[in-house]
Inverse folding.
C-alpha cells in the first residue's frame, strides 16, 4: 500500500502508572498502545505532579474544610480546631478559633480593634463639644487602624509567602497586598521543594521484526487541533483489521516548558505490540527545550537502557 512503511527502530512510552511491565497493552478507547521514537517526548507524558494547586496566599492560611488546604496548612504548622467553625447558610465559615500559630497576632489585632472602636466612639461624642480634640482622636484612630492593617494585618500572608519562598517557589502573579497567586505541585498531601517531579517510568519497545506501519502523516504537516488524528477510531479499527502493526500520526504533547508541542506518534496494534521486547527505567517528566535545540531527544534515562535486562 502507498501509505505503508517499514519500521524497525526503538519506540518509547512514558507513564506514571504502576503495573507489571508485561501487562503493557493497548488502551480501551482506541485499542492502540501509543509510543514515540523520541524518549524526551515520551517523558512529557509523565505528569510533573499527580496534582497541582492553583491558589492564593490567603487561602493557605485562612480556615478551610478542604482536605488539600488542611494538609498544606499542617505542613506549615497551622492547625485549626475544625470543631470551632461556625457556618452561614451557604456553608461559608463565619467564625472560628485562631490557629495556635496565629493566636498571639490575633489577640493583638483584637486589642487594637477594640482600642480603635473606643477612640472613634469618644471622638464622636466630643465632635460637638471639642472639635479640635475630636479631630486629634480621629487622627489617632487612623494611625491605630493603619498599624493594625499594614503591620499586623500582613503577618499571616508574610508567613505563608516565606514558607513557599523557602521551598523555592515564586508567585505566578505578585500582588501589592502580598496576597500572591501560586501554582504548587502536591505530593502525598504536601508541597514538595520546587523542582521535584513525580516519579514515573520510561518503557522502551524494541521490535523483534520489522513492523509494517500505516503512515497517516502524508500530506499533513502537523496535528490539526480541530480534528486531531488520535480520535480517528474508525481508521484505527480499519488498519488493525487489515493486519498493520501500527499507525503513524501527527500528535501533540503537553510540555512543561514549551506548551503544546507537535510530534510524531506511533500507535501499536495488539499485533505490533506483541512483536516488541520491553524494558523500563525509572523516569520523570523532562523539559523539552534542551533536547529540542539539538534534536537528539535522548535523555539520561533513555541512555541507560543498554545495561538493562530485556523482557
Amino acid at each position: 500500500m502507498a501509505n505503508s512503511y517499514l519500521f524497525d527502530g526503538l519506540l518509547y512510552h512514558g507513564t506514571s502508572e504502576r503495573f507489571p511491565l508485561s501487562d503493557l497493552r493497548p488502551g480501551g478507547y482506541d485499542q492502540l498502545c501509543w509510543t514515540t521514537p523520541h524518549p524526551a517526548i515520551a517523558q512529557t507524558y509523565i505528569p510533573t505532579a499527580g496534582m497541582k494547586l492553583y491558589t492564593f496566599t490567603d487561602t493557605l492560611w485562612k480556615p478551610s474544610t478542604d482536605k488539600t488546604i488542611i494538609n498544606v496548612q499542617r505542613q506549615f504548622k497551622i492547625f485549626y480546631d475544625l470543631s470551632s467553625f461556625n457556618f452561614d447558610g451557604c456553608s461559608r465559615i463565619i467564625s472560628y478559633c485562631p490557629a495556635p500559630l496565629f493566636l498571639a497576632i490575633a489577640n493583638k489585632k483584637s486589642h487594637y480593634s477594640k482600642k480603635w472602636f473606643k477612640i472613634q466612639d469618644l471622638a464622636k461624642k466630643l465632635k460637638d463639644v471639642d472639635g479640635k480634640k475630636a479631630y486629634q482622636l480621629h487622627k489617632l484612630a487612623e494611625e491605630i487602624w493603619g498599624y493594625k492593617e499594614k503591620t499586623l494585618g500582613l503577618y499571616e500572608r508574610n508567613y505563608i509567602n516565606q514558607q513557599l519562598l523557602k521551598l523555592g517557589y515564586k508567585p505566578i502573579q505578585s500582588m501589592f497586598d502580598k496576597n500572591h497567586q501560586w501554582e504548587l505541585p502536591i505530593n502525598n498531601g504536601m508541597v514538595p521543594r520546587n523542582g521535584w517531579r513525580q516519579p514515573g517510568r520510561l518503557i522502551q519497545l524494541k521490535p523483534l521484526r520489522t513492523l509494517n506501519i500505516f503512515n497517516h502523516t502524508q500530506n499533513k504537516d502537523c496535528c490539526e487541533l480541530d480534528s486531531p488524528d488520535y480520535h480517528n477510531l474508525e481508521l484505527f479499527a480499519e488498519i488493525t483489521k487489515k493486519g498493520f502493526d501500527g499507525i503513524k500520526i501527527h500528535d501533540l504533547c503537553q510540555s512543561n516548558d514549551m506548551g503544546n508541542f507537535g510530534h510524531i506518534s506511533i500507535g501499536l496494534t495488539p499485533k505490533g505490540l506483541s512483536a516488541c521486547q520491553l524494558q523500563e527505567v525509572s523516569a520523570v517528566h523532562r523539559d523539552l527545550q534542551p533536547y529540542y535545540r539539538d534534536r537528539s531527544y535522548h535523555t539520561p534515562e533513555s541512555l541507560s537502557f543498554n545495561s538493562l535486562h530485556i523482557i
